[in-house]
């Protein structure tokens, strides 16, 4: 269900969104009632691994200064290792520096089935500004 819902969110098709509307309303109300993820300026970052299939899209669209918009739900982790493992060989590791206010992220570590993943959920319509070009580090991006 998660994959289908995210597909609808990414397509932004108004007819399909209308069908999902009631479900999305209650889902978002519930998620918005959770405390926003508290970003602390202590060198803590969120990490997101993108598998190799998404690499070309990132290289083409994620250029310094460009705003990016994620329409669907996205997962990130407080663990760099978890994100690297998810990205796998040829994948890309994204470092997310969240703003201290207006967070579109929810800390779901205590709700997640996979507690070791240190998961933070990025809500739909997450917007970020690319601050660095993708670069190769130790054979990985």
Unreliable spans are none
E-strand count:
7
For the largest sheet, list the strands in their spatial order: 3-6-5
The radius of gyration computed from the alpha-carbon positions, rounded to a whole number of angstroms, is 15 Å
N-to-C order of helices and strands: HHEHEEHEEEE
Task: Please tag this protein with its features.
141 residues; alpha+beta; Toxin ADP-ribosyltransferase, Chain A, domain 1; 3-stranded antiparallel beta sheet; two-stranded antiparallel ribbon; 32% helix; NADP; NAD+-protein-arginine ADP-ribosyltransferase activity; transferase
Outline the secondary-structure elements:
Blueprint: H1 2-11, H2 14-33, E1 46-50, H3 55-61, E2 67-70, E3 74-77, H4 80-87, E4 92-96, E5 105-107, E6 119-122, E7 126-129
Q: How would you portray this structure in words?
A:
The chain is an alpha+beta fold. It has a domain of 96 residues: Toxin ADP-ribosyltransferase, Chain A, domain 1 (Alpha-Beta Complex), CATH 3.90.176.10. Helix content is 32%, strand content 21%. It has four helices and seven strands, in the order ααβαββαββββ. Strands 3-6-5 form a three-stranded antiparallel β-sheet. The longest helix is centred in the N-terminal third of the chain and has 20 residues. It is globular and about 45 Å long. The two termini are 30 Å apart. The relative contact order is 0.22. The model has no long low-confidence stretch (mean pLDDT 88).
Explain briefly what this protein structure is.
The chain is α+β, with helices and mostly antiparallel strands and 141 residues long.
């Amino acid at each position: 269900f998660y994959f289908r819902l995210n597909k609808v969110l990414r397509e932004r098709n108004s007819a399909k969104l209308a069908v999902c509307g009631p479900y999305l309303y209650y889902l978002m109300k519930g998620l918005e009632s959770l405390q926003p993820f508290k970003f602390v300026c202590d060198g803590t970052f969120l990490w997101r691994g993108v598998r190799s299939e998404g690499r070309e899209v990132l290289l083409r669209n994620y250029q310094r200064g460009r705003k990016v918009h994620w329409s669907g739900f996205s997962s990130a982790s407080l663990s760099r290792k978890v994100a690297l493992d998810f990205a796998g060989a040829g994948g890309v590791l994204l470092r997310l520096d969240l703003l201290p206010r207006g967070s579109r992220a929810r800390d779901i570590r205590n709700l997640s089935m996979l507690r070791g993943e240190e998961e933070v959920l990025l809500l739909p319509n997450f917007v970020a500004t690319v601050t660095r070009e993708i670069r190769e580090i130790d054979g990985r991006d």
